[in-house]
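FORM 7B: Structural annotation worksheet

SECTION A. Query
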Amino acid sequence: MLSETAKQTLEQWLKDPSIDEETKQELTDLSEDTNELEDRFYRELEFGTGGLRGVIGAGSNRINRYTVGKATQGFARYINEGHKGEGKPSVVIAHDSRHFSPEFALEAALVLAANGIVAKLFTSLRPTPQLSYSVRHLQATGGIVITASHNPPEYNGYKVYNASGGQLVPDEAERVIQYIQDVASLADVKKLTQADAEAQGLLVWLGDAEDEAFIETVAAESLNRDRIAAEYSKDFNIVFTPLHGTGNMPVTKVLERIGFTNVHVVPEQAEPDANFTTVKSPNPEEREAFTLAMKLGEKVDADIIIGTDPDADRMGAVVKDKEGKYFVLSGNQSGAIMTNYLLGQLKERGQLPTNGAVVKTIVTSEMGAVIAKHYGAEVFNTLTGFKYIGEKMNAFEETGSHTYLFGYEESYGYLAGNYARDKDAVLAAMLICEAAAYYKSVGKTLYDVLQELYEQFGYFLENLESRTLKGKDGVAQIQAIMTEWRTSAPEEVADIKVREMLDYSTGIDDLPKENVLKFILEDGSWFCLRPSGTEPKIKIYFAVQGENNEDAHARIQRLTDAVMSRIDR
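SECTION B. Predicted structure
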């Protein structure tokens, strides 16, 4: 039985003359599947602080040309009202390799053009960090990228950016959301034809020149560019997988630009593929995604294996341990290694600023923070989402209070340099390969370096669990879990007293309000409950510090078991 809301919205779509017949037929064919129709129409696809993300298909709770068009109409109003410069405002648009990504990107461009905004659209797929860079480089008023990151193939997404090249922070997103809600019907979405947009100079195509600018800008962040070609590259082997996404061209070009000559791309995963046919999930956070890369790594005796997600904003790395077995670095471990390498190299050269800053999220390990403080850098914590790290970078730039050195989050997102305001897997791939080559020159692997960091700074260990709860009922279940932990907070977990509960929905440390709970225990360990903003799941983060490796593993297991047993009840 359809709810009244779903029924009314479905009828509106079927009667709307602006919706094509193919879409209406898709909905008519589902007339007997009331559960599917309910899920497609019980609400509008939510525009969160990062934009839209959802399953591709017809319906108000799906991503399609109409929901993209409506979102763009609202964003166009935001862009026009905020534009203060001379001439027409402009928006840069990029897209990844997913189903309908080129079509959704063009749809957005033509809606912007109809609203008097110059749409600067890449001719083919490009990585998300290049979009962030290009907004700044071209002094655009905003940006749009069509991507669903590492979600399954049936998903796509729509992210919007401000003039600084960062994703919208909550107060900006709230204005866009209001403007989208003010679009009364799909018929109110303005749109030019491609021919008219091009003829009026409102649709401009981007290509090689912007690519070259991005590649050279990233390469300029290398700390050992002169030594790589001269000393490191000859016997240093890299295996790289772009996981069927946008990373192949930019990553290989940047590595070549700074001097690496032995870069082996996994052939089965080199080309864009919207179905990601060789992997269960195109996510470099998961070991399975590196199966083919590890086989190639064995064949060429790789010193390091790297992989990027479909829109190339997340990077994962694999190295060999003491026994020669492949060890997948976590996002926290890679972040700690890169923090140590970056700050260590700057200090060695006398280039480490006295007001240096490292920025991380509240669910990221404290290991990188301890390392940063060791080098004299100040550490700042933000909510989850690189937009908040970008916001900190803007504040540093405006006030001159700090020099941004590095920012990262446990979910494999990293950025050094001020050229962008979003995480960049192209930069991260370059930086971790450079670090691995440098340490090899002094007889160490990255695994050796990681063990040394544990010995010096403490045995930090983290874990992440999640529960996927789809559909209307899933949303209610996730909210019920958060309410239950918020109102019935435990006094102890795994026989350790809870020292403090941080409820970020109330606003803490001048951070925006967000539905996140963090519990800190008396031994310094912590866990955090956070509903995902991009997927129908709740994420639970865990962190401990042990006396040694074995102790840390035992502590994280006890903590995880205790929390998840209550979550699963």
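SECTION C. Observations
The CA atoms of residues 74 and 180 lie 4 Å apart. DSSP finds 19 helices and 21 strands in the chain.

SECTION D. Sign-off
Analyst initials: ____
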